[in-house]
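To make the argument concrete, we let one protein speak, a sequence paired with a row of structure tokens, as a model reads it:
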Amino acid sequence: MKALSFPKSHRLLKPGDYGKVFNDVRIRVPHRNFLILATPNTLGHARIGLVFSKKNLKLAVQRNRVKRRVRETFRLQPELPGLDIIVLGRQGLAQLDNQTVTATLNDLWSRLVRKHRHAQSSTPAPSRTGKGSD
């Protein structure tokens, strides 16, 4: 059962944690109903923070339903790299059913992993040639 838990260590808890992601966005995964922002961390596992406003989801029951879906799909993603992730809700979420939200989020998680791998592979390694080489 431990593999399926969602401990506090996998959540962004403090305003400073959110600020680090908002101030240093390395990966953006946009979608019509969601926006995922991410930046690498040194913890070795992903952490998630949620931002769903009343402007986009009027009723608390709608916000809570979507947040439950986000947390559940995040929890079931074993291949997520060490990133601090913020999921923002956009307009139109209230009209989506649970199946659509889950399918969309699963697609967004896989896009996030691909973008992270691409960013890692495209990061240039420090060159060994330069001053002092003959």
Summary: Residues 98-122 form the longest helix (25 residues). DSSP finds three helices and four strands in the chain.
